[in-house]
Write a structure and sequence with these properties.
254 residues, 2 domains, two-stranded parallel ribbon, two-stranded antiparallel ribbon, 14 helices
Length: 254
Amino acid sequence: MLIYRELRRQNVTVSLDGHGADELMGAYFQEGQSAAFRIRNAAAALMSRSKLAQRGIDFLRAQMIRRQGRYFLRGGLTAIPAALPLVAENDELPDKWGALNRRLYRMFHSTTLPTILRNFDRLSMAHGIEVRMPFMDWRLVTYTMALPETSKSADGMTKVIARQAMANLMPESIRTARRKVGFNSPMPEWLNGPLAGWTAELLDKKVPAFAEFVDEALLRKTVGHLTATQRWDWESVGRIWPYLNMKWLLARSA
């Protein structure tokens, strides 16, 4: 939001953004997470082939989250909501595609990338900035989608085809780097610090529509413990922030 605002202040009306590159070329393998990376790929492959498998994985994921103390919906595991239908999730994919390509296809068309594009479209157009995305050119997309998985992830590296294309065109320390760094709002630091009071105040509000399907007592206890012990991290933020965000939205519309 601030970047696009500053672009507009500098009379820049068009920006070049790199959306789509990660989802096309699998830039979601991080050091020390090889097992988790393979498990997510395998789960995505099963989900792309069977609705029953998708429901089963949803159940197992919810059970894991509950054991971690991060599941707050009323009704327990029997209340797991059915997955919403997503664009392209029923597309017939080539039989030769492996787990990674199937996962990337879903991320590109149905889950991760559409969410990113929606958010950036709102933020850019709020300041009258038009976004251009070279990696979303249909010719590059169809070409990259057709590549084998080894052109995307091999020898512990992601975006292999992009690295090969940039050989001798950029510093080797950057071209061959294995650490993926994102630009995210520092939510753990905020919730451990300046947002602690806001969070407590929000949870104290009476919002019947929220209390109807969320165990607020358990949520309040968990959030209170994380705040008191300064234990907010990206895992807890990812699991709990959706509840806080939803209550904030419902409170505003009440």
